Amino acid sequence: MSKPVPGTAINCKRHIPPPMHIKVTNGMPKISFPEDIWIGGDKLEDILCDAKAQILNSTSVRFLIPTGAKVLIDAAVIFLSLINQLATNKLNITIDFESEDSVVMGYFNRMGFFDHLHSRITILPAKPLFSGAQLYGNQNRGLVEIVKINPVDYDENLPSRFADVLEAKNKRLGKAAFTIFGELIDNVLGHSSTKLSAFAALQSYKNGTMVVVSDSGKGLLETLRPKLPKRFVQVSDIDIVVEAFAKGLSRHGNKSGRGCGLTTCALKAKQFHGKLHVRLADTRVNLVPSDEAYEHDTAICYDDLFPIRGTHIVFDFNC
Amino acid sequence: MTNVTISDSMNAMNQTRRHHISLVDLMKRPDGWGNAQGKEVGALLEQSIQRNPSVDVFEVSFRGVERTDASFSRESVVEIVCRFRANKGIVVIDLDDDDLIENLELAADKKAQPLFLWQGDSWRLLGPAPSRGNVELLNHVMSVSETTASAAASALDLKLTNSSTKLKQLWEAGYLLRREEMAPSGGIEFIYHCIK
Lengths: 319, 196
Hints:
The structure holds two protein chains of two kinds. Chain A is α/β, with parallel strands linked by helices. Chain A is built from ten helices and 14 strands. The radius of gyration of chain A is 19 Å and the shape is globular. The relative contact order of chain A is 0.14. By secondary structure, chain B is of the alpha/beta class. Chain B has two domains: 2-126, STAS domain (Transcription Regulator spoIIAA), CATH 3.30.750; 132-193, Winged helix-like DNA-binding domain superfamily/Winged helix DNA-binding domain (Arc Repressor Mutant, subunit A, Orthogonal Bundle). Chain B has helices at 23-26, 34-50, 70-83, 98-110, 132-144, 149-156, 160-173; strands spanning 4-6, 17-22, 31-32, 57-61, 67-68, 89-93, 115-119, 122-126, 146-147, 176-182, 188-194. In chain B, the strands form three sheets. A six-stranded mixed beta sheet of chain B has the order 1-2-4-6-7-8. The A-B interface holds A 156-157, 159-160, 163, 172, 174-176, 178-183, 185-186, 189-190, 248, 257-261, 263-264, 267-268 and B 28-29, 31, 33-37, 67-72, 74, 78-79, 82, 97-100, 102-103, 106-107, 109-113.
């Protein structure tokens, strides 16, 4: 995707990169992840966009993730939600890690990726015998493994667990992070209406910390749009997303006094110069904090992306 | 948690009955998040208030509360303050954590519900400020603790009807409490007092 340009244009059309490694054999597309660059949420969009037609017009798809591929946590979790959705739609999915010694497969296993995979998805060469997340879970101060969020079965201490990791870095960040996790997980519990589980995860990197909350339910816009006042009919998707984070919008109406969850998240993230990425059905909005808040002129929107159900929110803290 | 105290600053006729409630005692843990937990705690807070009908002001202590989010703050405290607006005073005490205050403030703003945070004898208003025309009068009442329309009119050089209207607006909006007393003239007089 094209890089966000702070303080300028909105609604960018996606920059189409050079053709990806997509091969079609006997009608089955094989989509290769690149090995030479970090694959974050933005790069994942490129990979999926390039393969959009092939995936949507096939009954079977193979993803090749080479052993040296470097996948960031946001891409891993959103990819997990996506392939679970595709498998639910009866698409046969294979993920080929090339080797049992694959570094990226080891990382995925440590994060609990395979613990949450739809049973229809095939892993090559083989699914790990033991879950790294279950063996070593909660033992690393720099990460929170992928956690399932299900309205009927969830860990009430989840926001505290996430906040504890960040609190070790910065006391105030821990408090702010608790608010962010609490609000986002609460949103998932209250708004997603699906049998597919939502996921959350956190990973600290050398230069920052990334948090992702990904659900496969009704997206933010699907939930909000029908309930908004008439004056929003002509308002663009990006403006609604920005409004929801900057000022607060509620499907329960303005007089309900609700709709402060996302605003609060944005406010707290902004205090730590956190970037915010919101992935909706076929749109992605990247919000970069300005001095005061997340604003329209610092938001970059990409549309016509690969269709993914739900709302997928990533906070990228520079600490 | 169940202590009811009577303000020493008031005379026997004008006693303000207070009740101390520890929020963390109503929570299962020191961290509170989300609508569901907030509503559970809010229901317990409401019960505590209803069990003490003679109390005028409930002091909700945040001592021991470690973390909250805005939804929890809204449902557990601000929503209940809103429900008892103009009837019972609910204030927050024992809170100096900026993040927790900010979450209460966001919730109070969203609900358009004033909420007083007391730190010793100093107060901070969370939520919306009163209209510009009523700010001076609110500050006056906060400084003198209680007043009548005629006393405020005389102190601030207002017309009596104007003073009376403004005090009523502040009371209805949840910035003040009031009680009825027999005026020297024999009629009923409203005593407006700060929520402390």
